[in-house]
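Aim 2 progress. For ZP domain-containing protein, the working sequence is reproduced below.
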Amino acid sequence: MRILTVLASLAFVFALCEAQRWSVRPKPHVDSEFQSAKSKVSLSCDTGKMVFKMNFVEPFMGVVQIGPKATRECTLRGDRRRTAYTLTVSPDACGSCKGHTCSPGTFVNSLYIRYHPTLERDGDDVKTVICKYQAGSIQAG
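Predicted structure tokens for this construct:
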């Protein structure tokens, strides 16, 4: 009987230590902006839109594209004069993964920054972007 009590105590201590180890584990940090040698990009996930704010070191003459297809809504072309741009897209546009591919309320896509207007070259930037939206609560009564 005493052995069972000791084993039960050890199991409890082990479970407590294991729970404590998991509770102090740091949460992963999610950046809403990234910076390269040529640009700084910030992403905000607002209701019904993804907003990309971009600042370039030099006047931008390249192309920014969200997702795999270069549609008008998902593409921004530099005018060779400005260094600051904003691109706003719907989270479910531009080929974002959604529905059964992603968890509900999560939209995943790729951001491509090409610094040349027609060529892909070394030094171009590609980032995976993720927006997570929480469903609002509905009360009936």
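The longest strand covers residues 106-114. This observation will guide construct design in the next reporting period.
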